[in-house]
Specification:
Distance between the termini: 26 Å
Number of helices: 6
Number of strands: 0
Largest sheet: none
Radius of gyration: 17 Å
Shape: elongated
Helix content: 40-55%
Oligomer: single chain
Length: about 140
């Protein structure tokens, strides 16, 4: 299978921005991060290392492009696409506010922390089968 070494001339600036985003992934660790650390980096959580977000570029599309282009490591990118990005915190913002957390940065931090816990708790063997080809997740 041949790999594309240079972008085709037909790519627009949006696609080239996504390609530029992928260059930052060369600096990511190969296997030393947890599931929640990968999620934080890929989703651009405050203070998280990782690729810089490009305005107007959906990370889902950028990760898909990275996978198609053979970016490494593949396993955390695939797991983020298929599992981690769908994880939800155990409590909603409304529940936290009702429990006394003030809306603002603290609320966002608490939600990210709860989501990280949910991601780590769910990190185990895949129990659901992958969808058939052509089915969007």
């Amino acid at each position: 299978m041949a790999r594309i070494s240079a972008p085709p001339a037909s790519l627009d600036s949006y696609s080239l921005n996504r390609a530029a985003l992928m260059e930052g992934w060369a600096k990511l660790p190969k296997h030393s991060w947890s599931a929640s650390q990968w999620t934080a980096a890929l989703e651009g959580w405050p203070g998280a290392p990782g690729p810089q977000r490009v305005p107007g570029v959906a990370m889902e599309k950028a990760v898909a492009m990275a996978l198609v282009c053979g970016a490494q490591p593949r396993q955390p990118l695939l797991r983020w696409c298929l599992r981690w990005r769908h994880s939800q915190p155990q409590q909603t913002a409304q529940q936290l506010i009702a429990g006394g957390v003030s809306p603002g940065p603290e609320l966002g931090q608490r939600l990210r922390s709860l989501r990280a816990q949910s991601i780590e708790a769910g990190e185990g063997p895949v129990t659901r089968p992958l969808p058939p080809p052509g089915i969007k997740i």
